[in-house]
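[Discussion] Sanity-checking designs against the backbone

I'm trying to build intuition for which residues belong where. Below is a structure token string of 279 positions. I'd appreciate it if someone posts a full sequence so I can compare it with mine line by line.
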């Protein structure tokens, strides 16, 4: 069942809500209004809703439903009148319709192109290459206590020497956002932390704490290295969205090169265009 159909069910749009799921219909099969022989479907309502400003779209669909249906009725009647007045024979309208047709054709072709290139098979191929090219690297898990003044950092290090718990001190004294996690920064790799912080981590052994405060642009850190591990490739479901995004970027870049190959393309200078319009 589509997401759009679920919206209709949740907002009590259809009487079929009380019927078994087997009897449910697609939105385009459900009539919400008729004008003579013209039918307005639930899909038309959903399409119109998607074109509304964000503020209006956030309202319950049941609340804006009457207005949308009436606007669709008015639109149909106005369109009929436009055809009756042979507006579609006017040169200006013909040009606009052609441009709209071209845009629609381009949009649907591109959607089909991207859908093909991001099929499950293509995603799996991309992931397989990712696994083949994956190189293991070291990952570090560290906690830190961040303070503004060096003297305060030194005092905290002294407290740690008498075996006070690192996480409790982090929650009490740290000004960094990780204080709520007891100072734990999670796993990170080389290059993800500022230089001074990373250099201090690389010198530490597992379970050890920096003997002196580590100064960075953020302040003074007391760092504890919790663990070190070899990285593992991500599971496909964890990076599927990133894979799709990368495939789309690559596909569009290659498509642009392919389409423009051996084509004579000239782009006018912006200032020249403005000058011509103003003159």
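Best answer:
Here's mine. Compare freely.
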């Amino acid at each position: 069942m589509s997401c759009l159909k679920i919206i209709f069910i949740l907002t009590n749009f259809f009487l079929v809500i009380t019927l078994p799921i087997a009897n449910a219909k697609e939105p385009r099969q459900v009539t919400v209004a008729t004008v003579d022989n013209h039918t307005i479907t639930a899909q038309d309502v959903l399409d119109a809703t998607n074109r509304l400003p964000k503020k209006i779209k956030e309202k319950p669909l049941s609340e804006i439903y009457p207005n949308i249906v009436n606007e669709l009725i008015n639109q149909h009647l106005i369109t009929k009148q436009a055809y009756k007045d042979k507006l579609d024979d006017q040169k200006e309208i013909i040009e606009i319709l052609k441009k709209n047709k071209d845009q629609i054709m381009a949009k649907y072709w591109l959607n089909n192109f991207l859908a093909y290139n991001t099929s499950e098979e293509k995603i799996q191929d991309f992931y397989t290459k990712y696994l083949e090219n994956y190189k293991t690297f070291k990952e570090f898990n560290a906690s830190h206590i961040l303070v503004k003044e060096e003297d305060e950092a030194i005092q905290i290090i002294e407290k740690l020497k008498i075996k006070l718990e690192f996480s409790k001190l982090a929650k009490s004294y740290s000004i960094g956002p990780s204080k709520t996690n007891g100072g734990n920064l999670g796993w990170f790799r080389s290059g993800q932390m500022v230089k001074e912080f990373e250099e201090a981590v690389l010198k530490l052994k597992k379970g050890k704490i920096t003997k002196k405060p580590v100064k960075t642009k953020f302040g003074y850190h007391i760092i504890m290295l919790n663990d070190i591990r070899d990285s593992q490739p991500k599971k496909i479901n964890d990076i599927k969205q990133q894979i799709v995004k990368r495939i789309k970027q690559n596909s569009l870049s290659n498509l642009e090169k392919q389409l423009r190959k051996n084509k004579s393309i000239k782009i006018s200078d912006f200032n020249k265009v403005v000058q011509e319009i103003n003159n």
